């Protein structure tokens, strides 16, 4: 079995008596990207700083390629950890040109360095700008130089803290994909911090979802998105509709029909949760909706409250006849119903999550 490039075990850190990192454990294999994803203030950067060696944890251990770099008694300095850093304010040295910025991380003879610097810049597509100064580069170009600089010492682990947040959307997508390619190619283990679910899903082999200092769920983006551990985890990725119900005989009766709740005791209140794109819409046929099906349950009628055109899709909000609550749907944008239109909604059974009530 391959040794993980990075292993974090039971890492904890408090500031002024408040625990901001709470028993965090994870590992990253060579060439893999793990995203620490979570809301602002949940402890992502603090975790990363502890791995980098610029923050001393209260407890826990960190290994790089099987070598212990931090525990209760040992604290290897940052420069000896074989870790590359790329942070949001990645600041290149303004008085050095591109070549000198990249060479900064290299050790060895000057003559050998030029070749290495050229190779690195070629890899990030910046060789033609080798003689420029940072102020002569765009934000995206600076980012690429910063990546080349971080890769120069061939780190085993690359830590990235919201490295793309200064870039506009289109450029960011390109730079993300290019960066990922270069990092995978270099075989480094990447721990990337972000509070954006879209960025995490695009970049990560594995997402570690963090909340209030703890990792609440770990898994491939597909699994985290499709089998969230609780309502909050589901809500972190999109709007969520919640339909309330009570379990009786392993079933929950709702206006959308019955939902299975195996093993849940009678009388338990549950939230049936569904993402807006997993509601189906159908036409009103003189006050009647489509026939119930096993896959989509019973239709319930609602009236369009608001419909917004978003390009590839429309967001349509309904006020439901059964209790006046609002449900949000996301449908292909060829469909943009007028406010006041009565329509019928159905819930895709295979896409809903059932959680005990009161989770968020
Ligand atoms: N040196 C410090 N002294 C005191 N409190 C700190 C210190 N560093 C961080 N904190 C606090 O610890 C908590 C976690 O901070 P951290 O920077 O790890 O959050 P984050 O998840 O990276 O958030 P963001 O997405 O906003 O960057 C915050 O409440 C922050 O105020
Ligand atoms: Mg942070």
TrEMBL record:
Pfam family, one: ABC_tran
Any single biological process term in GO: quaternary ammonium group transport
Keyword Flavoprotein listed: no
One MF annotation (Gene Ontology) recorded for this entry: ATP binding
Protein name per the record: Iron(III) transport system ATP-binding protein
Top-level taxon of the source organism: Bacteria
PANTHER family attached to this UniProt entry: PUTRESCINE TRANSPORT ATP-BINDING PROTEIN POTG, SPERMIDINE/PUTRESCINE IMPORT ATP-BINDING PROTEIN POTA
Domain ABC transporter residue range list: 6-237
């Amino acid at each position: 079995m391959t040794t993980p490039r990075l292993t974090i075990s039971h890492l904890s850190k408090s500031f002024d008596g408040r625990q901001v990192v709470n028993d965090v454990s994870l590992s990253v294999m060579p060439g893999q990207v793990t995203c620490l994803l979570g809301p602002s203030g949940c402890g992502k950067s603090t975790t990363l700083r502890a791995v980098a060696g610029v923050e001393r944890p209260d407890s826990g251990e960190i290994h790089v390629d099987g070598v212990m770099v931090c525990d209760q008694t040992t604290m290897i300095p940052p420069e000896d950890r074989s870790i590359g850093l790329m942070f949001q304010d990645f600041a290149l040295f303004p008085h050095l040109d591109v070549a000198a910025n990249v060479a900064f991380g290299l050790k060895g003879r000057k003559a050998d360095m030029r070749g290495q610097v050229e190779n690195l810049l070629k890899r990030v597509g910046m060789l033609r700008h080798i003689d420029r100064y940072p102020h002569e580069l765009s934000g995206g170009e600076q980012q690429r130089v910063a990546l080349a600089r971080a890769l120069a010492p061939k780190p085993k682990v690359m830590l990235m803290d919201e490295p793309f947040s200064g870039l506009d959307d289109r450029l960011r997508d390109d730079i993300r994909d290019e960066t990922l390619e270069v990092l995978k190619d270099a075989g480094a283990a990447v721990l990337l911090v972000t509070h954006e679910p879209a960025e995490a899903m695009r970049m990560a082999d594995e997402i570690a979802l963090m909340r209030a200092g703890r990792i609440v769920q770990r898994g491939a983006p597909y699994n985290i998105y499709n089998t969230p551990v609780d309502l909050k985890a589901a809500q972190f990725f999109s709007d969520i509709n919640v339909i309330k119900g009570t379990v009786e005989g392993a079933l929950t009766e709702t206006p959308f029909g019955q939902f299975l709740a195996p093993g849940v005791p009678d009388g338990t209140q549950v939230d049936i949760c569904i993402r807006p794109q997993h509601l189906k819409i159908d036409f009103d046929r003189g006050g009647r909706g489509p026939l119930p099906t096993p896959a989509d349950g019973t239709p319930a009628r609602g009236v369009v409250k608001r419909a917004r055109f978003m390009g590839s899709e429309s967001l349509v909000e309904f006020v439901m006849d059964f209790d006046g609550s609002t449900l949000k749907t996301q449908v292909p944008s060829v469909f943009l119903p007028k406010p006041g239109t009565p329509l019928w909604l159905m819930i895709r059974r295979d896409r809903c999550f059932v959680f005990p009530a009161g989770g968020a």
